[in-house]
Specification:
The protein is mainly beta. Helix content is 0%, strand content 45%. The chain has strands spanning 4-7, 10-12, 18-24, 34-39, 46-51, 59-61, 69-74, 79-84, 93-99, 111-115. The strands form two sheets. Strands 2-10-9-4-5-6 form a six-stranded mixed beta sheet, with no helix packed on it. The mean pLDDT is 93.
Length: 117
């Protein structure tokens, strides 16, 4: 039993930065890989980035965000972060966190990221 609360989204101009937070309702140290997803209007949710559980800091990124986004975690805070730099209009979406693969009943409300001038 776990749920995630996403925060940190907002409106930013192209080229700007945001840091998203994903806070879990329980310890994530022994959880499956925590993963960021996003869903743009009229599209399906897609994979963004993931990070390994526990002391495993393995990360992986979608090609569309590699070299611009960084995923990292603070196990003591039960929180996974997504640092988003050099944002583009195509990054506009609702961002969610979940497991990899996702558990359908773990989806939260997400946090809106809008990149626009």
């Amino acid at each position: 039993q776990v749920h995630f609360v996403e925060s940190g989204g907002g409106l930013v101009q192209p080229g700007g930065s945001l840091r998203l937070s994903c806070t879990a309702s329980r310890s994530i140290y022994d959880a499956y890989a925590i993963t960021w997803y996003r869903q743009a209007p009229g599209t399906q949710r897609e994979f963004v980035a993931t990070i390994g559980s526990g002391s495993d800091d393995y990360t992986d990124y979608a090609d569309s965000v590699k070299d611009r986004f960084t995923i990292f975690k603070d196990n003591a805070k039960n929180t996974v972060y997504l640092q988003m730099n050099s944002l583009k209009s195509e990054d506009t979406a609702v961002y969610y966190c979940n497991l990899l693969p996702p558990m359908q009943d773990y989806w939260g409300q997400g946090t809106q990221v809008t990149v626009s001038s």
